[in-house]
Every structure is written in structure tokens, then in C-alpha cells.
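Bug #77: duplicate submission created two jobs. Keeping one. Sequence:
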Amino acid sequence: MASLFSWITLFVLFCSVSSELILEEGYTVTTVIDGHKLNINPHSVLARPGSSDLLLLDFSNSHLYTVSFPLSNESEVKRISSEEKLGYRDGKLGLARFNKPRSFAVDGKGNVYVADRGNHVIRKISTSGTVSTIAGGLSKAIGKKDGPAQNATFADDFELAVVAERCILLVVDHGSQSVRLIDLKPEDCTTTSPSAQIFGLGAVTVWTLGLGLSCFLGLFVGILVRPYIIPHTGRLHPHQIQQEREALPDQFGETSSDTLLWHQKRNC
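Kept job's structure:
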């Protein structure tokens, strides 16, 4: 009896789960990077603004790679960090060393922030390819200390996220069960979108083009309406001058029309 009750319970659970499942078709899964063949362990990927490559973080070997688009099994995977493994070294990206980097994030300018878990610090890779430490560089200890970024401490398990609209870097500190916030520099939050170009460096060009266009339109409209404006400027056309002369009286007080009428009567 108990066995029958168990089967009924499982059947009811199966039916309830199946009734809540919604399968949407039209998607395909494709393996584009095989870590076994490349001897790497992909942990996180990131699309960098303005770059034609994808950034890949190898947590196990503490390396950073770029992967060329379009992504496929033939995509070129290129190591961009030092060939040495675990370590801590700033400077040029090709010589920089990391220690079990956990995750990374990118700001509006294209700078990459790396959660260097093994070193308990946050590193920054600038758009020019220079690696620097922005938080946790002085203490190098495990903990949860706020304050100036260089004196701050972090747990041995944390991840990063950038909120570009707010110009902030969020630290999800799993070890201390908290979310920390770092204000980024204003110059690291600029974007190169078309609207930013129009209202930024391209403003002078836009205003110059607009002024030139308005002058051209004004000249074009002036040429079109000129024939309709000249007759009202006070200048008389030859036909108008002749009519005025005929209407003027001569020395006897007679107009040209009166003289013509007198000559017609005389001929009769």
C-alpha cells in the first residue's frame, strides 16, 4: 500500500512539473571553443566595446585570451597575458600576471576590470593595454575593509559588474555576503556613441554644416521670390513709365489722351 502511494505521489509530481514546462523552439547550441583541445579552462567571456575580438578568462591557468569573430571551432584564440602562470605583476598586458582571476567587467570607455581572486585585488586593463591595481593593492589581505580603494580588503571569492549609466563598479563579495561599490572616474564612463559625438566633439562640425545649409537655402529662396519682389520696390518698368507719361498734363493743361481725342475730332 505504501509503495502504491509512493508511485502515485511521483506521478502527481511529474505531471505538475511537466505542466509548468514551456519549451520554445528555434534555438541551436554550438560549441565554438573546446578547452580540451586548446588546453585552457574557459571561465568567463566578455565583449569589449569597439573591439572585434572576444575576451576570454582562463581561471585555472590565470591567463587572458582574445577570440576572433565570427565564433567557430576555427576561431583564433590568442593569449594576451604573460606566458607565466600564477603571479602578481602590473604593467604591460603582455607581461602582466594574475592569480586565479574570477571574473571581469567592462566600462563605457572599454577599460576591463578583473577580479584577481588569488591576489585579493581588483585590476584594471586600460584601452591602451596597461594593467594597474585600483583596489586592495596595499593590504593584500583577506577581509572586508571599506574606505580608500587601495586600503580595502576583499574575500577570496568575489565577482565584478559595471553599471555604466551610473559610472560605478559593483563588487559581489561572496565571502562576506555583501555587495560593495566603487565610484569610477568620469573619464572612464564616456562613450563613443553617435549621439555623444554629435553633442560632444562633433558639435562644431554639426553647427557649421547647419549654418552653411541655412545660408544656401536663404540664397535659393531669395532667387525664387525676386521676380515677385522687384515690382513692389518702387522701380517702374518701361510700360509703366509710358503710362505715366501719357497721364501727365502738357503746358496747356491737357493730357496726352485729351490731345489724341482733339485730333480725332478735327479729322472728322
